[in-house]
Amino acid sequence: MISEILGHLLGLAVVRLFLGFFLGIAVLEAAYPGILPQPLLNVLSAPINVYLSWCYPIKSADGTKDLPSCAYRWPNGQGDTAKFLQGIENSPRWEKAFGSIYRIWSGTKPEVVLTRPEHLQPAFFDSDQHIKAVNNNSGYLLGELLGKCVGLISPPQWQSVRAVTQPPFLYPACVAHTDRIQEIVRSFFQELELDDTGSLARGLIHPAHDLKMLPFWVVCELFYGRLPWHLVQELKRLAPLRENLMKHAIRGGLARFSWSRYLPTQANRELKNFQSRWRQFNRDVVAQARRAEKPAPIAKMYDAVDRREISEDQLLQTLDEALFANLDVTTGGLSWNLVFLAAHPDCQRKLREEITEATGSGSLNKYLQSQSTYLQACILESSRMKPLAAFSVPQSAPSERVVGGFRIPARTDFIVDAYALNIRSPYWAPDNETYRPERFLDRKNVELRYSFWRFGFGPRQCMGKYAADAVIRTTLVYLLLQYNLSLMEEGDWTRDQESWITHPDFHLYCVKRGQKD
C-alpha cells in the first residue's frame, strides 16, 4: 500500500514537473519569440493546433473535407509577424500550399483567407453589417492602443464614433482644404531643401523616410487647425514613442496576453507614458480650440464626449488611428508612387505633361479633385502593385456563408489576400505584374469592386480615403513640377522589414528640374 501511495505521488510529481516545464518554455518563447529550437516549438504547438482545429471545424459544403489550414504556432499563430511583416513572402507560399481559400491563426483566433474576386462577393455583399475582430485579433497591447477606434469597432458603436469624427474627412471638407494642402506640401519641401544635411540637398530622396511626416501634418490640421509651437513640439515627441509601441504590438508574444499588463515590461512603461501624454495633449488642444473665434473640428468632437455620445477613449484612439496608425498607411501609399514613376520615365513624362497642362490652364484645383486623370490612374496602379499590407483587417459576417465550396460559420473572421487579388488574379492578365496606369482609364469603379483592394468595401471603407488621395495627388503634382525622379540603380526594391505597412527602403535621384542629373 505504501508503495502504491509513493508511486502515485511520484506520478503526480512527474506530471507537475512536465507541465511546469512546458509552461516555462511557453512563457520563454512568448517573451523572446524565436528563442526555442524548432523541434521543441513543434512539440509545444502541436497539441494547441489539435485543440483549435477541434474547436473551430470548417467543412466543405458537402461535409466531406476540412478547410485547408496553416498549423498553429505558439504564441502568435500566423499573426501579426507572419501576416504583416512577412506577408508579402507568405501570400504566394500559403496559397501554393493550401489553395485559394484556407485558414490561418491570429493568436488562437481563426481567420479564413480569401484570394479570388468570386470569394469576396458572397462574403462581403453585406459588409456594412460585418463585425470587426476584437482588437484586430492582435491581442492586449494593440487593443490598448486602437481597440476602441472607429476602424476596429462594430455597430452600433461604429456609427456613433464615425458620425462624430468623420466631418473633416468628408469629400466637401477635403475639397475646401485643397489650397491649404498645397501650402503645407510646398512648405514641407522648402524645409527639406533648406536642410543641408538632408537627402534632397544632395539630389536624393528617400520616399518613405523623407515624406513620412507630410501626411501627418495635413491630417493633424484637419483635426486640430493650426497648432502653436509648443503643441507641435509635443506631437513630434509623441510620434516616435507611438511608432515603437506599434512595433511591440505587431511582434506579439507577451503583448498578446491580457495578463502581461501586470508585468514590468518596456512596452507597458511606454504605453502608460504615451496614453497619459496623448490624453493631456488633446485636452490642451481642445482648451485652446474652444477659445478660438472659429473652433477647430476637435472642439465639436469633445463636445460629443461631454454629451456622452462617444467616450473619450473612443475619440482618443480614433485620433490615434488617423494620425499615427494611418501615418504609415498614407506614407506607404505615397512613397511607392515615387518609385514607380522613377522606374518608368515614360509614365513620369506623360504625367508631367498632364500636370503642366492643368497648371497652365488655371484649373489646378479642379484637376487635383478629379477622379478621371492619368494622375489618379498612376496612384491606383501603384496601390495595385504595392498593396499597403499583404492582408486586410479581419472581419466576420453575421450569418453562415458558402465561400469557395466551404461552409463558413457565422462570426468567423475573413481576411483578404491583397497581393492575390490585386496582382495574381486573372482579372489583371495578361500583364498582371506590369506597371501600366492606363489600365485604370478603361475601367469603372463598379467593375473593380471585388477585384481591387485598397480602402475596403461598402460603407465601412476607410473614412480618410479622400484626405489620403488629396495628399498623394498634391505631393506628386508638386514633385513632378519641381523635380526629375530616377532610380539610382537597377535591382530588387528593398522594403522596411520592421514596418507593418509596405514601405520602400532606398533612395531615388530627385534632381531639381533645370539642373543636370
UniProtKB/TrEMBL annotation:
CDD domains associated with the record: CYP_GliC-like
Cofactor(s) this protein requires: heme
Name this polypeptide is given: Cytochrome P450
PROSITE patterns: CYTOCHROME_P450
Native organism: Aspergillus novofumigatus (strain IBT 16806)
Record Pfam families: p450
Entry keywords, A to Z: Heme, Iron, Metal-binding, Monooxygenase, Oxidoreductase
Keyword Ubl conjugation carried by entry: no
Similarity remark: Belongs to the cytochrome P450 family.
PANTHER family: CYTOCHROME P450, CYTOCHROME P450 MONOOXYGENASE APDB-RELATED
